[in-house]
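Q: I have 1176 residues here and want to know how they pack in 3D. Can you give me a structure?
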Amino acid sequence: MAFWRRNSHVEKERHVKANARDYNDKFSYADNHIKTSKYNVFTFLPINLFEQFQRVANAYFVVLLILQIIPEISSLSWFTTIVPLVLVLAITAVKDATDDYFRHKSDQQVNNRQSQVLIRGSLQNEKWMNVRVGDIIKLENNQFVAADILLLCSSEPYGLCYIETADLDGETNLKVRQALTITSDLGDITKLMDFDGEVICEPPNNKLDKFTGTLFWRDNKYPLDNEKMLLRGCVLRNTEWCFGLVIFAGLQTKLMQNCGKTSFKRTSIDKLMNTLVLWIFAFLICMGVILAIGNTIWESQIGRNFQVFLPWNEFQRSAVFSGFLTFWSYIIILNTVVPISLYVSVEVLRLGHSYFINWDRKMYYSQTDTAAEARTTTLNEELGQVEFIFSDKTGTLTQNIMVFSKCSINGKTFGDIYNEYDQKVEITEKTACVDFSFNPLCDRRFKFYDSNLVEAIKLEDLAVQEFFRLLALCHTVMPEEKSEGNLVYQAQSPDEGALVTAARNFGFVFRARTPETITLCEMGRAVTYQLLAILDFNNVRKRMSVIVRNPEGQIKLYSKGADTIIFDRLDPSNEDLMYTTSEHLNEFAGEGLRTLALAYKDLDEDDFDVWMKKLLFASTVIENREEQLAVLYEEIEQGLKLLGATAIEDKLQEGVPETIACLSLADIKIWVLTGDKLETAMNIGYSCNMLRDDMNEVFVISSHTVQEVQQQLRSAKEHILGLSRVSSTGDVEKTNMFAVDSVFEETIIAEYALVINGHSLAHALEPQLEHVLLDLACLCKTVICCRVTPLQKAQVVELVKRHKGAVTLAIGDGANDVSMIKTAHIGVGISGQEGMQAVLASDYSFAQFRYLQRLLLVHGRWSYFRMCNFLCYFFYKNFAFTLVHFWYGFFCGFSAQDVNDQNSLRYPCLYKPGQQNLLFNKRQFFLCTLQGIGTSFLLFFIPYGAFSVMVKEDGSHFSDQQTFAVTIATSLVIVVSVQIGLDKHYWTAVNHLFIWGSLTVYFAILFAMQSNGIFGIFPSNFPFIGTARNCLSEKSVWLVILLTTVVCVVPGLVVSFLRADLFPTLTDKVRHLQQLRKREGPQEQNLRRVRRTSSRRSAYAFSHQQGFGELITSGKNMRMNTVPSVSSPGRTPHSSTWIENVLKRKNEVSCANDESTGGPENSDIAKQTPKQQHTD
């Protein structure tokens, strides 16, 4: 009962007291045990049977089994139904149990991880599942956080710690968290044991970026926010240890609150089969009623004359009652029209397709020894019907590796290589790298191919030296020298790490820093710069600057940022260089590279002193501090001199652009759902060719209120549909106008893209706006959602599932993708850098995004094609077989591949029939049924008519029922065997074995069942001795069989021939081409990445966060005993107060909602169209 009380209670606020388990237990908070599996030992049987009996056919067979137990109406043994039914249920149950076993195994692995918990005055190792709310736990470097904890203290100064949140938001850059000042000195076990603070906070929720609470301790209260929380799924980095108080545990942690539930997934064919089974059952009842009425009429008019030979049983009192019993008898006899063998065959077929996926060597990734894996066998044909793909970005489309690729310095580009004819040469793995052996401190993993840049460095080109000096000074990277020359950079973003590493290799090595100094090794010479100020990055400024004093006493400002921002602050004398650099930036942007512009400024000593006094004052004011600092930053960052620009490649996984292009040709829509910032997500969109400069419009939705989001969505939709005139009658008329959007979707030729951030998406997913969002998104060729939470990813997938009725596929590699993977019809996990959480929750898994192309266009299409062909043939065969009994009832008194894998990839349009559900639907089922009924009619009446006039070779008539039955059965087996042979697209040894083997087995069983030997063993069950031998020895019988076969097969053959010749499908055309090219051998499709021409746009994308600069200058993130002893000038007077507001400012992670430079222009940004914002 405690379980129900705990779940029925709605928690309004949470009370957690440290080191007080008895106090916390009375609230019945969730423990730290997690469960992602569906079943346990007690619930497996009832839940699994409930899921299986959602198949109407399974329920139908149970009813049939009950009928067969009644002897008065059953003409078949109940074993004929119960054995195959139990077999089907058992096979499915074993498969489901196996899938769930792996989920249990994963849960146990997580639950049994060890954590150090403070219990009774000492640290004790406890399993994660035994950690409880209110416990104080210790974390060590590189450990996963066990629960949602309040940071109390750490090994770092001022209670700071660094975490990586890749499993939560997909970002691998480090984030800073800091304990309250009052608890930051609780590092001693004794002090922690005495800590009895109480936290009152919000109840469990799924908001990753929000936490509100208060700590009550020692008669004081202290506000708590998200910056003081370490969430489950984070990893502690660059911090030796920290202690935390558990606030939320287990399923109530924010990570688990964002994970969707494991649901029972069924394919669209399964759902269609349920409907068809109901139809067939209705048809079966109709046949039973017809035959029952016929039996009643026959018994009342004719049957009474035969009662001497066929007397009624004791319970048969009237012809009507006889008809009633006949109805149920025929329900049992004709039950094969919905055979249970169909479901056995379907499961075997799916199992075979799963093995084809597992065995596909073209989906094997040798670098990590990872093969593709079908983790479920029930969704294979669904892979051939996908219309929407929802993809994560980091680790799925990209490798999350930043590489310094090219640069422009003083009007000259570096990074490309040319041959002796001055033609650009493509860089491959075999291209020789630049030799950095002149630099003993270089990073051996760094690769660059243009030797001209090294030569410029060696020739002491002043512009080149200043360029790399800026990269080595203007950043917030923390160095760690584990041994002499063994430098490790801890970068807050991968972009910064790539730039500082580039400067290091080109001879400007960032060696050490203190709060007041930065030490470089410039071409082998140690140089120390006095750090005077850091003008920190934020999403509005889109730049960062440092002010340093060099050994010569000169004061310099170095700045890097978005090109549009830097260019607006250049000295007019730099105009020519700016235009040249701008052309280079266009070229870099055209190649999908992430760019930054670099500039510097020489500062006058007196002017700087005046500015510093203003800055000191602004840093201490209480009101509008941020605005005043921004004005001062703007003041000094004017009149800059341009140095050049950098171009960083966010390395895509191999084959990503080609895969996306190919899937687009198959009419599959790909939406990117990522936790990254807007600029980064858009940049990857351009790299993947999902976004292009020749698109008609790129709509950027980045508002913070419902009204603004609604306006932007409606404006974009009106723009696409050409409805720019706003109706004076209001939204009602517009709703009617938009009611036919589905028609417009098919006719829009122009290409549009939609980019929406997390704040706007939260409003757009509300009930009153979700239809507008979906309509707009479906009108766009590309959709990118950035800064989204795991739950929002699932909500977007659910929105499409609910309103579009399309098959969806979600693909990702991290724990933040698990929710959408579970929500989509098909979930695909990539075994990447972010752990195995996505793989464990997925239906299919492999190592590289490019394998998705083969999974869908080859295996998915083949699975769907084979399943549809199989079902069409199966229903045809069964109706042909079963309805022979129906026709017989009137005379017995009513007693009762296509194309290969290369062409599948070469012609993605072949995938479209699956999306449109053309190969097996209600119409196809009706046609198969009609063909089966026609065949059954011919199978019965051709032998019936022939037998009425035929005689044996000895002159006697064919008068016995068994000869007639053998003739019809043999004709049936031969007809359906010929039909399946005609349906074949490839003949292999396996085809021959099963088709001709089936005929051989039929004749062997037929002769065995009517042999002397079997009669001797079971005389009552097999009384018809020699019937088959005598019947099939007659030439006339074989002529009847031949005639029946030809008449049954030829009409279908003629229709198929004429349809392929006069109305060929794309599959028919490709198959014809395939046969023509057979001698040429298979040719792989060559979808080369098209280099796009770029209009003027910024390729700026810098995944940096505000606040790190102030942490550095405050010295709060540095251990003083590890700082190298380098001579440094005295600290300037302002340094003690320069960062007084560091810890008061939240480490905001928000998407930029404008592209302008600030000031008055900001107020006009809402009036710009998204395209204007994009091209500014």
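Q: Anything worth noting?
A: The first strand starts at residue 14 and ends at 17. The radius of gyration is 38 Å.
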